[in-house]
């Protein structure tokens, strides 16, 4: 088994990204994922990284620049998933490092991630990666 590599995702990764999104708990048909990727991939304020091993996509991370009135700009990890059979092999930390490097290149001093309260294993992962809880909140949706 080769070492994983991290690279920018492309439209050719659509089916694998959709399959991994399903493992994350967000099932998305490949056709819909392709539409999303076609909108997101060209943007300069966001980056989607793909983790690849032996020619196969084994993880992805989506990071974006956030600009708000009430705070300085920062980077936020919108999503991170590693194939269930590949977890615990250092791929997640590689993806986080890629996001941190991207944020630094954008002159964004802080990287934030939001994580569902029920994902306790994921909380421990982010704590191991140097993240600290800064607040707890509820998300309200309408429509």
If classified by CATH, what would the architecture be?
3-Layer(aba) Sandwich
Radius of gyration: 15 Å
The end-to-end span amounts to 46 Å
Would you tell me the overall average pLDDT? 95
| Helix and strand element order | EHHEEEHEH
What's the level 1 CATH class?
A: Alpha Beta
**Shape descriptor:** globular
What's the SSE blueprint?
Elements: E1 5-8, H1 14-24, H2 30-40, E2 46-53, E3 56-66, E4 74-82, H3 91-105, E5 111-113, H4 120-128
Helix pairs in contact: 1-2
Characteristics of this structure?
single chain, about 140 residues, alpha+beta, Aminopeptidase, five-stranded mixed sheet, 4 helices, about 25% strand
Task: Compose a concise summary of this entry.
With 143 residues, the chain is α+β, with helices and mostly antiparallel strands. It has one domain (5-128): Aminopeptidase, CATH 3.40.630.30. It contains four helices and five strands; from the N terminus they run βααβββαβα.
In words, what does this structure look like?
By secondary structure, this protein is an alpha+beta fold. It has one domain: Gcn5-related N-acetyltransferase (GNAT) (Aminopeptidase, 3-Layer(aba) Sandwich), CATH 3.40.630.30. The protein is 32% helix and 24% strand. It has a five-stranded mixed beta sheet with strand order 1-2-3-4-5. Strand 3 and strand 4 form a beta hairpin. Helix 1 packs across helix 2. The longest helix is centred in the C-terminal third of the chain and has 15 residues. The chain is globular and about 45 Å long. The mean pLDDT is 95.
